[in-house]
Amino acid sequence: MTPFGSRLGVSDGVEARSNCVSTCLRLEFSYVDPESGEIRVGKTSPDTQGFECAGVTYQCVEYARRWWIRNLGLTFGDVPTAADIFGLEEGLKLPGRTPVPLGRSLNGAAKRAPRRGDLVIYAPDPGDAEWRFGHVAVVVEVDLDQGWVALAEENYDNRPWRDPDVYARRVHLFAVGGRFTLVDVQPGATRNPEGGRIAGWVYPLTMR
């Protein structure tokens, strides 16, 4: 556990900070200027025309939006939980919020491997307070030969990133019969008592 707001790492210019524990919720929001990259935090938008709301500060959805805004020039609409991102059919190109179709790959059945910029979506578990809303992380590196995907994120375990200048952690990737599976276990490990079940990954269709 790390103190609320402490720096965990940065990936592609997008800083991640600690939420202390995954069940903590502080109702302040991050707002991003897509043109300058400026970030402001508050209860209301500083400029409804110029700033995009990324979400509740230091939550996983907020980080995913900020990463997409900065690196892809995209955002996505409101979702009740991180798990609901898996059902989105379109993102929004900035500026202008032009609709962009999204694709999704079902974990274990996917013929398309995860790629940089994809959003890895964890399934919700209503019986587990840590996982009742699922989780989302951004793919920042993929190594098909070694069988891993590197993720950037907030509010997974709120520990300093394994590589604080690149990624938070790596998870195991393998393929059977040309279909890809991600498992929430570090490469080389066989179990993760704190891990969750990955539903799949989401990505823009017209920008790849």
UniProtKB/TrEMBL annotation:
One of its GO terms (molecular function) is ligase activity. This is Trypanothione synthetase. It comes from the Bacteria. It comes from Imhoffiella purpurea. SUPFAM superfamilies: Cysteine proteinases (SSF54001). InterPro entries: CHAP_dom, Gsp_Synthetase/Amidase, Papain-like_cys_pep_sf. Residues 35-184 form the Peptidase C51 domain. PROSITE patterns: CHAP. The lineage of its organism: Bacteria, Pseudomonadati, Pseudomonadota, Gammaproteobacteria, Chromatiales.
